[in-house]
């Protein structure tokens, strides 16, 4: 997989050389290219933003640098353009699995109040475009979100994980939050590991873990247990 990042803060993406994506580079699973968007500006001040038509606070990223970047990077139908934005589709394990199937991702990191809509409309004429949100809160720009999407995707690439079982067992792969985990020592500061985990009875351990996962999910993320069209009391809302 080839990954390109368009950003006015290329240093933000230095973290890609560490951690999971760094290992994937070393293994030859991914190729990473971080680009300073100002490379595709032509004025003395290397301007990438301007005030919004129609008025309002903040600045909007101008379309031309992105357009020239798409041309130089040969963004085409083999590419998915990923645009981190709080107004995007929520990032889920399912979306990460879908992005992991693609041969090429180009991340467009916006700052200020966002990117001129024509960047997305134009990109959609030559590539697949996915606007992705990390959740219902606002970050200052797309860089941290691009890192999060990258890490969620890259660890799913075939050949990345040493232990395939750990991919299956973790939170969200089975639609539940993960059960709590413990390691040595069996007793620490007066706190004991649940005895069932020391019993050697693998069926009982699996059942205990399942119950813990269900209880956690019910307490923290009841939305994961309920179809969207059911209300909190289980009533049917076909319009949802
Ligand atoms: Cl993807 N971008 C920004 N700027 N803010 C966010 C976000 C993304 N997801 C949640 N907040």
From TrEMBL:
Q: Which GO terms describe its cellular component?
A: cytosol
Q: Which GO MF terms are attached to this record?
A: acyltransferase activity, transferring groups other than amino-acyl groups; tRNA (guanine(37)-N1)-methyltransferase activity
- Give the top-rank taxon of the lineage listed in the UniProt record for this protein: Bacteria
Documented EC number(s): 2.1.1.228
Reaction it catalyzes: guanosine(37) in tRNA + S-adenosyl-L-methionine = N(1)-methylguanosine(37) in tRNA + S-adenosyl-L-homocysteine + H(+)
Broad EC category: transferase
Keywords, sorted A to Z: Cytoplasm, Methyltransferase, S-adenosyl-L-methionine, Transferase, tRNA processing
Give the subcellular location: Cytoplasm
Annotated GO biological process:
tRNA N1-guanine methylation
Chain residues that bind S-adenosyl-L-methionine: 110, 134-139
Q: What does this protein do?
A: Specifically methylates guanosine-37 in various tRNAs.
Q: How does it assemble?
A: Homodimer.
The entry assigns this protein to a family as follows: Belongs to the RNA methyltransferase TrmD family.
This chain belongs to the protein called tRNA (guanine-N(1)-)-methyltransferase
Q: Gene encoding it?
A: trmD
